[in-house]
Amino acid sequence: MSNMLGRVNHIALAVPDLAVAVERYRTGLGATVSVPQALPEHGVTVVFVQFDNTKIELLEPLGKTSPIASFLAKNPDGGMHHICYEVTDILAARDHLRAAGARVLGDGNPKTGAHGNPVLFLHPKDFFGTLIELEEVK
């Protein structure tokens, strides 16, 4: 599998207060920001900041067991949470990465992401301290 990665779909930032972050991007930077979307399966509420070449995803914890809550406990001001790369076949990408020694988080089966597409996350220790999300885009 020569080049399984497509473009960078988005860069995700965990934020302690989504409304403040939206206002900063919308008013401070003049950016177009989507409406908030709750994703209970992932424990987050998200918005997307649109750019010509990619998106920034702003994440706020949703619920007490949100993985973003533990991230923000260590980084109270927020910070980069993950980078999402596009793939055309998420199962083939998963199998290739596993064979190469990468760890897929969760049960290894794709979940539905914020764009309605299958997503998987790869362990940050396998990618130089960066959590990687793969999103299947056809």
Task: Explain what this protein looks like in three dimensions.
A hairpin with a 4-residue loop joins strand 3 (about 35-40) and strand 4 (about 45-50). Strands 1, 2, 3, 4, 5, 6, 7, 8 and 9 form a nine-stranded mixed sheet that branches. The protein is of the alpha+beta class and about 140 residues long. It has a single domain, classed as 2,3-Dihydroxybiphenyl 1,2-Dioxygenase, domain 1. It has three helices and nine strands. The two termini are about 15 Å apart. It has helices at about 20-30, 65-75, 90-100, and strands spanning about 10-15, 30-35, 35-40, 45-50, 55-60, 80-85, 110, 120, 130-135. The mean pLDDT is about 95.
Mind sketching the topology for me?
Elements: E1 8-14, H1 18-28, E2 32-33, E3 37-39, E4 44-50, E5 55-61, H2 67-74, E6 79-87, H3 90-99, E7 111-112, E8 118-122, E9 131-136
Parallel strand pairs: 1-5, 6-9
Antiparallel strand pairs: 1-6, 2-4, 3-4, 4-5, 7-8, 8-9
